Amino acid sequence: MTRAVLATLIALAVAALPARGDAWSDTGPSYWIEAQLRLISRDQPWPTVQARTLFHVSAAMHDAWAALEPDDVGVLADEACALIPEDDQQRERLQRIALGHAAIEVLKARYPRTNRDGLAVLKFEHALRDDGLLATLEGDDARAAELGQRIARRILADAMDDGSNEAAEYDDTTGYTPANAALDPDAEGTVLTDPDRWQPIIVEGRTQEWVTPHWGRVRPFAISKDDPSRPYLDPGPPPRLKLDDHAALSASLVELILLSSRLDGTDTAEAPEDADVGRVLAEYWEGGASTETPVGRWNLIAATALHHAEPSGDPGKDLRREIELFLALNASLHDAAIACWDIKRYYDSVRPISLIRHMGGLGQSSDPSMPGYHKLGLPLVPGLVELVTEVSSAPGERHAHLADRRGEVAVRSWRGNRGRDGHDASGVGWIPATAWLPYQDEDFVTPAFGGYVSGHSTSSAAGATVLEAFFGEVIPGGPVEVRADAGVFLEFEVGPFYDVVLSAERFDELVEQAGRSRLWGGIHPWFDDVRGREVGEQVAMIVLARLQPVSDDEAAGSE
Question: Model's pTM, two decimal places?
């Protein structure tokens, strides 16, 4: 997603923040979530790491707020505080000061530098100064600030042994080694030692390393497992490349090839409007570098929903709802990342680019009497997956440019980023199956970790389940819309050809968008998406049960 779109979404999310005379009286959790999203957009876009920090920011804010509530307790750092004014308005002001300083403490610790310009924290502090949030505090205000800082430091200290390996910049602690040698997407074909397991990609001359393969070992907030040798929430294995699973597996890959064949954004396309919707959907939800990542996206959605939700008329009650919403949301996203990566690492599953190229290289699986037969190859589908023959490759025929590939399998798909330098869309055409590419940026190609289950789908289902619990199924304030203007929105190639509007009235429609976007993008088959949604919903329900209610009998950090 472009920085312009990110800026627009953030502006909508925090539009409810008033002009501040007394800055601390009007600054709430949404402000600090928005501040983190800006930092994320400049930092490494690792969804696991960002979900963890979003949770710790939210927990620190909650626990600082709870310390100044007579009947509430912290979830990670419970602290009894004598500084609880009887006056509701004064107590709310002190809570905002405490939770704000708790957030600042976590953010400054987690974003000391960035991969982009090294100035993120300096810019963050400059913004706080402009908003009047770095002024010297006195009396109870100062004590509230110290309370928030103290609680944040406790959470930060406790998290240093949570299994994330933060001290070593989240390096792998499991000794993971890929089963397959790296794939060069610019060269045809691939060699898979084990076609069921993940294969790294060579991107800009560098071989991918699995991003945080140890994340299933990170300490969760609410989920638990009975068998340490199995995933937290085991959806069962994905289809494998074997005869018993071949029909289901090949059908899922044919679906991706079919979607790819519809991504023709040229003025000669049969249905460029459909192509534009698919391409915009894939790029909007991609959530890579220079974005707030998918977990941040759900925080934007939450902040926007809060802005449009009907206020209670009681500022203290509204602050409670806001603080509890972000705690529940980010605890769910944190645990969803742990559960998802636990499954990813356990099954270590292959990505479509590897499998389609591999199966296409084996041959066709439809007719033993035809050339290139292999029982584990790609099935032939007229107009989509075909064998290059003497007739089909004759001059003027659809495979004429593949005349030297007779007997091989060709697919009708998106042709890659080749048209971008010429300021034109690449379009769709017949290419060797061994050269198939997902609809992704050439500097990304496919994510640096196994496919099953989809992280987008897992986090989206978790996020939507929490938001539905707070707001109901319908999104407050009307449909969430993303407008993609013709010719300027897309980054993988030029486009869209037409103006496109993505719209959702319900939270589950956003989950559908996020999940389907991964199929349009060619990096997940349907079972990665559907099983991920199931896991994400289960995680959120466990977290919500853990938080309802947080009573005095449930001490901070207890299980």
Answer: 0.93
